[in-house]
Amino acid sequence: MVGSALVRRFESEPGVSLVLRTSAQLDLTRQAAVETFFATEQPEVAVIAAARVGGIHANNTYPAEFLYDNLAIAANTLHAAYRQGVKRVLFLGSSCIYPKHAPQPMSEDCLLTGALEPTNEAYAIAKIAGLKLCQYYRRQYGVLFHSAMPTNLYGPGDNYHPENSHVLPALLRRFHDAARAGRPEVVAWGTGSPRREFLHVDDLADACAFLLRQADPPDWVNVGTGADVTIKELTELVAATVGFQGRIAWDASQPDGTPRKLLDGSSLARLGWKAKISLPQGIKETYASFLAEEAAGQLRA
Q1: Nearest in space to 146 (alpha carbons), one of 154, 155, 137
Q2: How many C-beta atoms lie closer than 10 Å to residue 149's C-beta?
Q3: Closest to 149 measured CA to CA, from 220, 235, 46, 228
Q4: Does residue 241 lie within any of the structural domains?
Q5: For 213-242, what is each residue's pLDDT tens digit?
Q6: Smaller CB count within 10 Å for the chain: N or C?
Q7: What CATH number corresponds to the domain at position 202?
Q8: What angle do CA 209, 165, 147 make, to 5 degrees?
Q9: What CA–CA distance (Å, rounded) separates 268 from 260?
Q10: Is 28 helix (H, G, I), strand (E, B) or coil?
């Protein structure tokens, strides 16, 4: 999803020539393959958007894979970029790097000040390692390696797996299927009380382009909208967008995760960037994309 958004953002950018590989073409967990790629292509700039990702269920079920794969991706790509003289690297992390009970909104300096949310600890540890690798390569060797920490992302090309997807695409898929089947009820996980912030992936791609134009960017910077909603509000918004008319039941036996995750985006705002796509508009556009992907047999599920 993120890679596709970056391609949309940069494919018409003057002076930019994209060097792309799918995960089937290049396994970033294999060090030798990554070294060969960077040595052969010699890119001037690398944006590390690849990751093994998923929602609460996937993070809880596959923590070993989430930690190993994401550690390997970060270590292999960043070290190869350094060895091959890549001039600039932008590493993409996640808001889950911050402590579970961090002050809200979460600023960059609350990193490593408390315990992580247990349900996505493995993923967060790997992303913290990537952020720190960038920081230390920059400090030790003077290379312009820096990171962006986006909030929860959604948009075209998302993963709609019924169990392993993130909350917004999971809800969209669940309400779509229920509306199509005429079911009277949809079960949503948790209590609906946690608050989450959501950023359209095209806004993230625009923020990446903005950061790559900065001569001296921060080691890492938050990327968000500055506003959050409860999961209950999100669920009702998705149901309305899809056209589901039935009842929403809450399964409080399922985990809620972190009570609130709102990023402090003031650092990026001071540099001159802000998000443009509202959540209702973004969900409407994402659902249209979902329908088009489904009709074309290209839905990631």
Answers
A1: 137
A2: 24
A3: 220
A4: no
A5: 999 999 999 999 999 999 999 999 999 999
A6: C
A7: 3.40.50.720
A8: 30
A9: 21
A10: coil
Residue 74 structural domain: 2-160+197-227+261-278
Lookup: tokens for 139 = 């400090």
Q: How far apart are the first and last CA of the chain?
A: 13
* Cα–Cα dist 38/83, whole Å: 9
Structural domain contains residue 168: no
Tally the domains of the chain: 1
- pLDDT at residue 128 is higher than 80: yes
Is the Cα torsion angle 130, 70, 194, 60 positive or negative in sign?
negative
Joined together, the tokens standing for residue 221 give 């910077």
79 CB-side CA count, 13 A: 16
- What is the maximal distance between C-alpha atoms in the chain? 60
* CA–CA gap between residue 83 and residue 86 (Å, rounded): 8
| Cβ–Cβ < 8 Å for 153, 3 | no
Length, in residues, of the chain: 301
What is the full DSSP assignment across 230-275?
A: EHHHHHHHHHHHHT--SEEEEETTS---SSEE-B--HHHHHHT---
3-class DSSP state of 51: coil
The answer, yes or no, to whether residue 103 has pLDDT greater than 80, is yes
- For residue 286, the surrounding DSSP H or E stretch is helix 279-295
Q: Which residue is associated with the tokens 């030798």?
A: 32
Cα–Cα distance for residue pair 60/121, rounded to 1 Å: 9
Residue 158 pLDDT: 93
Question: Encoding tokens for residue 206?
Answer: 């625009």
Question: Residue written as tokens 């923590």?
Answer: 63
State how far the Cα of 165 lies from the Cα of 171, in Å rounded to an integer: 9
72 within a domain of the structure (yes/no): yes
> Does 21 map to a domain?
yes
Average pLDDT, the chain: 95
